[in-house]
Design goal:
The protein is of the alpha+beta class and 175 residues long. Helix content is 25%, strand content 40%.
Length: 175
């Protein structure tokens, strides 16, 4: 199977580049992050141990890179289905943010991220893909922020950044 090609900027031009190469070189690239909410809580996931970076760490509901010919909104819906078996939840675009973070093993995430949120129903049924997700849980913003402060090593670098720098855009004006 060939390596996935994702949109990355090379010499200022958006170009399809192999995903692993993007992270090895720390190239700026497109990404999508989703936060599903229900009654003031957000669904977070623990990344599967097979993931090539940040395995076993807790992250937002889901995130990925759009395929070369895919819209951000379509990518967000695709990844919810692939990682968690969730379909049909309307998503709202909230913001585009850029960050750069070391994710270990010589890999760098330098992402321009389209952030989407969605409201999950109380009876949300989902089936995590075990090769992507090893656990899930619902957490309130304050509990999540407190846990990240107390145990930062178990959370992905991008979740730290989202909560520290972009909470208002993601969770509303109260944070």
């Amino acid at each position: 199977m060939s390596e996935q090609m994702i949109p990355a900027w090379v010499d200022g031009v958006l170009t399809p580049v192999e995903k692993l190469k993007v992270h090895q070189k720390g190239l700026k690239h497109k990404a999508v992050s989703v936060f599903l909410m229900h009654e003031g809580r957000v669904l977070i996931q623990q990344r599967a141990m097979e993931k090539y970076h940040t395995p076993g760490m807790w992250a937002n509901t889901c995130c990925t890179h759009p395929l070369w010919d895919e819209t951000d909104a379509d990518c967000a819906q695709r990844r919810l289905a692939e990682e968690l078996g969730i379909n049909g939840i309307p998503l709202t675009y909230r913001d585009t943010v850029e960050y750069r973070a070391d994710v270990g093993n010589g890999l760098i995430e330098h992402e321009v991220v389209a952030i989407f949120t969605g409201q999950a129903p109380a009876d949300l049924a989902f089936a995590p893909n075990k090769s992507e997700v090893m656990a899930t849980r619902w957490m309130g913003f304050d509990d999540l922020s407190g846990d990240i402060a107390q145990s930062p090593e178990i959370y992905t670098p991008w979740l730290h950044i989202y909560l520290r720098d972009h909470a208002a855009a993601i969770f509303g004006g109260d944070h």
